[in-house]
Design brief:
Elements: H1 13-29, H2 33-40, H3 44-51, H4 59-69, H5 74-89, E1 102-104, E2 123-125, H6 149-159, H7 162-191
Antiparallel strand pairs: 1-2
Helix pairs in contact: 1-4, 1-5, 2-3, 4-5
Length: 192
């Protein structure tokens, strides 16, 4: 379980500590990356990137790993704090400046001339103020909000007061009773 590839030497201390703790937590589950991917809705290759420090994991992936490992309460909060520190310190790939976007200088767009090239003078550069930024979010990192469906149900039910959940539960129970009753009647008539 503990045969991990070495982490890059240039990793900041916060990132190194976080990834090492994440690896220990994953090892504590006793699961393979495939099984972990099945239980957490994040693929095996995603977990490989997260656990080898190639890419920062989304916060929800860390929460899902804590849930699978049986971690709760203060320890889950500590992982959340470690995640925040690591994401802030995570090394970013330098983003090369984007080339200027070309748009027609006005009027109809001329078609290509015989060599397949646009007609000379047919395009003008768009000012940098109108260019779309290459990265989103703080420091170029955008958290992936992907959640497994069962976590979404827990979140939704925790936002509703207990009184509003009770009528829905009673409705489901009544529908289930009707379906079972119909199945019993059809079975009795058929087997007669």
């Amino acid at each position: 379980m503990g045969a991990w590839q070495p982490l890059p030497e240039e990793l900041p201390a916060e990132v190194r500590h976080f990834v090492e703790q994440l690896r220990l937590l994953k090892d504590r589950t006793g699961m393979s990356l495939v099984a972990l991917g099945t239980r957490t809705a994040y693929s095996k290759s995603s977990w490989q990137r997260y656990l080898n420090a190639s890419q920062p994991p989304p916060r929800q992936a860390v929460v899902a790993l804590c849930r699978v490992a049986g971690v709760a309460g203060e320890e889950t909060e500590r992982f959340g704090v470690r995640w925040e520190l690591a994401v802030r310190a995570w090394p970013r790939e330098p983003v090369p400046p984007a080339p200027p976007v070309r748009v027609p200088a006005g009027g109809p767009v001329p078609g290509p001339v015989s060599g397949g090239e646009p007609a000379p003078g047919a395009e003008a550069a768009v000012p940098a103020a109108y260019a779309v930024p290459a990265a989103r979010g703080r420091d170029g990192y955008e958290e992936d909000p992907t959640l497994p469906w069962w976590d979404l149900l827990d979140e939704e039910s925790s936002r509703q007061p207990p009184a509003s959940r009770t009528p829905r539960l009673l409705l489901y129970a009544a529908l289930l009773a009707v379906v079972l009753l119909l199945a019993a009647v059809v079975g009795a008539v058929t087997l007669g």
